């Protein structure tokens, strides 16, 4: 992108840090010692590397200064997907993997991305004065893309302003103002995403929408982001966008429905303040005032009028995923994937380079283990995705392209996006991995206090050892869970960091605020790396479906509180009962088989057969028809519901509540009941995959 990018900077060279050098020297000394004292052993390590000393060894090779040096190299310049500087970052990651002796490859796609050309915002106040408002950031250095919303249409709107709080449907109802033809200003809040704010504004007839982050600090930052509906390349929905492959036209109805029809832009809180403080009309509703930091007392419309112009272009760009493969020794056709995206809106120190630095460090530490004779039982693949910020494009194209191999052979996908945003451990997962997460966090040292594990400080935090669920579409796990039905985990430290998607998301912010000693990075790599070691090496997969059954039961209970008598939840209750029974049986079988650690071939076959059943259960929750109106989303337990506020599980059932407001009572009940049946059948399928027998 000539118009927005400065000349490429090529300054990637990392010195090995002193600490990592010492670790390597120490390891070499130990090896030398064993070579001298155990000359008859042909393995480089005396005792076989078993799971527990392997894990200890992995943890002992951590180095905060090495991770810091990776992060510094990754954040030297912005690396927006599809631009020349991003290609430098790709080369850096690739050469890191290659220099460690890992087998690497790349997967290249052509996808429709979106970049800004120009924008302007002028406020006309009631006293006749007007002012041009700044749409750039003081921190925006060379090559930083100007603030914009990717995939926003171009447009020019002159209209009165209305403040709509978080821009949710209920905010418009509360407001009671006709916003038709107006420019609405919304603050970013909680779970209600950027795309949903734009979609809701459009539904309510607004002509344009401006969104700002109402944080306490960094009030001059602009939160960039995409406003596309659905995920993946819009021109190749459901298949991979490869050079020479099928690509829909820009005017195709399937493509058009992915983009908003009204232009939008991010604003800084400072700029938003200068507009909002001049509004008249009704006072801001009492309920909105609680956490409101902006100087807004009235909601409008007007009298302030804005002239807002945005010009952008959508264009085909080349994107590249990078992979490093560690081949499994006994089950090379079973895969454990660790993934993180590489592209960033700006310098991307938190988002995503903290995760990329963690991935690079895991590669370094795994290669030390390999040097000591470790051979993972299953194949491990480190994945570095491109164009996540444009709607998980790199990971989605790859999942679509590899759907059958992935679906039938992948044990789990472990995602890390913004590895470190601040203090506090957070994790989301599909429920069969809950027990493993609890076990692993007990083995990793807490980064912020002495003699305490991650598990213990997490337990003491608000909500205890709370594990979130992966129903959102805010990172690369989305395709794996919601399209391919692969057990997945997502890990991060801290949340809601104030410089999200702004030019302030730099190495300095990380070193001063996010992780001053880089120990939180160390903790993330510890948890991430150990989870993968278990999943790759444990002879029986560390899956627990009893916790999945409990979770489903919880959803059933919450649903029954929401529904009236007319809908029967009996089919759902029966399917969960069957699933719970299968889970209990599998758990007993697993415990028995775990005791038989012999190298007996028939035991190995039995373990492999059990593992296959454990691995395939998640696929049972997929439905070939997917969610109504959004067929790409196949998972009926976890996925985004179109009513963004209602439920974070059973998205099809949740959708049926929303859709059925405009139809007759009888049709409404039937529509909800049908969705309940579909979920019940999915749970039966999962239970039967777990039992592994035909009916
Ligand atoms: C692993 O090997 C170490 C010796 O290196 C031994 O002390 C330990 O008991 C072994 N652990 C397991 C789980 O086999
Ligand atoms: C809102 O205003 C528009 C245009 O001024 C009008 O067409 C529409 O009917 C109004 N909507 C309501 C609910 O009053
Ligand atoms: C709004 O601003 C744009 C860009 O500065 C300008 O071209 C346009 O004439 C303005 N519109 C009105 C109605 O003043
Ligand atoms: C690494 O951790 C140590 C101990 O907390 C600290 O003294 C050092 O400054 C850290 N290094 C970096 C680069 O933050």
TrEMBL record:
Molecular function as annotated in GO: metal ion binding; metallocarboxypeptidase activity
Domain PA: 158-220
Membrane topology note: Single-pass type II membrane protein
Gene Ontology CC annotations of this record: endoplasmic reticulum membrane
Cofactor(s) needed for function: Zn(2+)
InterPro entries: PA_dom_sf, PA_domain, Peptidase_M28, Peptidase_M28B, TFR-like_dimer_dom, TFR-like_dimer_dom_sf
Keywords: Carboxypeptidase, Coiled coil, Glycoprotein, Hydrolase, Membrane, Metal-binding, Metalloprotease, Protease, Signal-anchor, Transmembrane, Transmembrane helix, Zinc
Pfam families found in the cross-reference section: PA (PF02225), Peptidase_M28 (PF04389), TFR_dimer (PF04253)
Every Transferrin receptor-like dimerisation domain range: 568-690
Coiled coil: 545-596
Family per record: Belongs to the peptidase M28 family. M28B subfamily.
Protein name in UniProt: glutamate carboxypeptidase II
Species this protein is from: Lotus japonicus (Lotus corniculatus var. japonicus)
